[in-house]
Design a protein that fits this description.
CATH class of chain B: Mainly Alpha
Order of helices and strands of chain A: EEHEEEEEHHHHHHHH
CATH architecture of chain B: Up-down Bundle
Oligomer: heterodimer
CATH class of the largest domain in chain A: Mainly Alpha
Number of helices of chain A: 9
Order of helices and strands of chain B: HHHHHHHHH
CATH architecture of the largest domain in chain A: Orthogonal Bundle
Largest interface: A-B, 47 and 40 residues
Radius of gyration of chain B: 20 Å
Chain lengths: 248, 250
């Protein structure tokens, strides 16, 4: 496959950055998108150019490290996959592909396509946990009965890998799907109910302080989420927040 | 309660200003107290004010429809709405406050959302994952705001002037003719109809979105979405019908 790549190039956080056009040849349809970028970087290095920086780790769609806004969509045009699981057969020979970093004031660009998503970590630190006695007398979680429906919903919420596609896709740059999933994951389980009030108040406060936008329920996040996290999680967070606000 | 003429002038002439001042004051209080500080509180406030305005639209729809079927019924209801102290001095100010609140919050949220992404994408395929109506509430909302300006100029301002400035005599039969007269102009009729299309788009997202915002995403959601879609189509279509009916029949 021969392709034209329009890639965001930015030397560092202070650099203004710009879209740069490149031609690339010899791409196989069975390559993953990141393998295509590996080939591109190899060609760049061989030609004495600067390879493009991009995030990746497991390349199995489970770590949430890869990002990229491809042809106007987070993780590209395929559904239910991260960029590492996106294959070049989704594109046609001769295509022009636009590759940009995830854009948000809370995801500053580090270099080229690499963004700093530690704002998500700070939201997690604000309340995305349960306090458990780990002194040697830890109680087995299975000793507390949980009904199957709640357990399944909690598990579905817990599949969020924190990649940031929800923020990147949302026209408002809102992080409510991510926070909704993290709040729901605990709110649905008995172990999470003890700290439920402080959790949702603190996580939402941190989310707002990071500068994420306001959710207007367009549903773009749900469509683009590689793990299929549902909008129900945002509604549950809203309920949890309203209830917590009344209490505290 | 009997209100004398001079008091009517004061109340009538300054009513909108009182409403705006009260609104600005209450937003200020809410912002200071932190009630509207959080993103979720803001969306809940938008949802509740939107649901309130939809209730108003529904009653406006039913009153307008009577004008098609019975001149006298329309006149009677309009006379009641225009002269009942509860409607005039309690419900009307609440409605104006609700409208102003919804618009101010809409613009505030839009500015905040734009700030959340200071560098735009070179390529953003919004149509791939969200409807036009959901992505462009600020556009449909702005058109509705402009329409409200025209609508107030057409009906509300002359009505206030008639009652509270000119002290026009109580005339229970004037309303129908005032309505029909307005829709003689093809330009005005067209502007109204275009605005109602945008209102429909605004409601198509706004109705179901309101319930999601207040946390009501549950087993009733599918039914609510269906009802919301029906509401978003039938109500504006009814307004278009009334406008065209009077345009072509008088």
């Amino acid at each position: 496959m021969k392709l034209t790549l329009k890639i965001w190039r930015q030397k560092n956080a202070q650099d203004k950055g710009a879209m740069v056009d490149y031609k690339i040849d010899g791409i196989e349809p069975d390559m993953s998108f990141l393998e295509m970028l590996d080939v591109f970087n190899e060609q760049q290095i061989n030609a004495g150019g600067d390879p493009v920086a991009f995030d990746h780790d497991c390349r199995e769609g489970i770590c949430g490290m890869c990002s990229l806004f491809i042809n106007g969509e987070a993780h590209g045009p395929d559904r239910g996959v991260t960029t590492c699981q996106l294959h070049m057969r989704m594109f046609k020979d001769g295509d022009t592909i636009t590759i940009e970093p995830f854009r948000s004031v809370a995801f500053p660009v580090v270099k080229d396509l690499v963004v700093n998503r530690s704002s998500f970590d700070r939201i997690q630190h604000a309340g995305g946990f349960i306090s458990v006695n780990t002194s040697g007398n830890t109680i087995d979680a299975n000793t507390i009965p949980v009904n199957k429906v709640d357990a399944d919903h909690a598990f579905d919420a817990a599949t969020c890998i924190g990649c940031g596609a929800c923020v990147a896709s949302c026209k408002n740059g809102s992080a409510m799907l991510f926070v909704g999933a993290k709040v729901s994951q605990y709110a649905l389980l008995p172990q999470g109910k003890i700290e439920a009030t402080e959790r949702v108040l603190n996580m939402v406060k941190q989310m707002d302080e990071e500068g994420f936008g306001n959710c207007t329920n367009t549903g773009a996040c749900e469509v683009e989420c590689p793990k299929g996290i549902s909008l129900e999680n945002i509604a549950r967070m809203n309920r949890e927040y309203l209830s917590a606000s009344m209490k505290g | 309660m009997i209100i004398n003429s001079s008091e009517k002038v004061v109340v009538g002439a300054f009513l909108p200003y009182f409403c705006v001042l009260f609104k600005l004051y209450s937003i200020n209080i809410m912002a200071k107290s932190g009630l509207l500080k959080s993103s979720i509180a803001k969306k809940v406030a938008m949802a509740l004010s939107g649901l309130f305005l939809m209730l108003f639209l529904a009653q406006h729809f039913f009153i307008n429809m009577t004008s098609v079927f019975s001149e006298s019924v329309f006149n009677s209801i309009s006379h009641f709405m225009g002269n009942n102290p509860l409607v005039q001095f309690v419900i009307q100010p609440i409605l104006i406050v609700g409208v102003i609140f919804h618009f101010i919050m809409g613009f505030v949220l839009n500015i905040q959302n734009n700030n959340a992404r200071p560098i735009s994408y070179a390529s953003y395929n919004g149509a791939a994952n969200a409807s036009w109506a959901s992505r462009n509430m600020i556009i449909s909302g702005s058109v509705i705001l402009a329409f409200l300006g025209l609508h107030f100029y057409d009906f509300w301002v002359p009505e206030m002037a008639y009652k509270y400035v000119e002290f026009g005599p109580l005339n229970e039969t004037r309303y129908f003719h005032e309505l029909a007269e307005k829709f003689e102009s093809p330009v005005r009729t067209a502007l109204y109809c275009i605005s109602f299309v945008l209102l429909s788009l605004h409601l198509q997202h706004g109705f179901s979105s309101s319930f999601q915002s207040i946390g009501a995403n549950n087993k009733f959601s599918k039914g609510l979405q269906g009802f919301g879609l029906g509401f978003a189509i039938i109500i504006p279509l009814g307004f278009v019908f009334v406008a065209l009916f009077h345009h072509f029949n008088h």
